[in-house]
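Write out the bound-state structure for copper (II) ion.
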Amino acid sequence: MCEGCGCHSGIDTVVLKVEGMSCGHCKSAVEKEVKALPGVSSAEVTLEDSTVTINFDTHVVDLDKIKNAIIEAGYQVG
Ligand SMILES: [Cu+2]
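---
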C-alpha cells in the first residue's frame, strides 16, 4: 500500500448502530475500544442516534473485529 497517495488503500467508512450507550462515558468507552484496533483511523459516536461512525482499513481489520470490540466494551451492536 502506498501511504502517501492512498491509491491502494481499502479505507472504508461504516456506521454501526450501538445499543446501550447513554452518556459521555459510554461514548468515550466505545470510541476508545474501537480506535484501539489496528487499522481503525477514526471512530466517532453520536449519542443522539446511538451510532458510531468508523473509518477503517479493510486490509487490516474487518467488521467482525470491530463489532467484537464494541461487544467486549459491554454494548450491543444492532
Ligand atoms: Cu454511560
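---
Residues 17 and 51 are 4 Å apart (CA to CA).
The mean pLDDT is 92.
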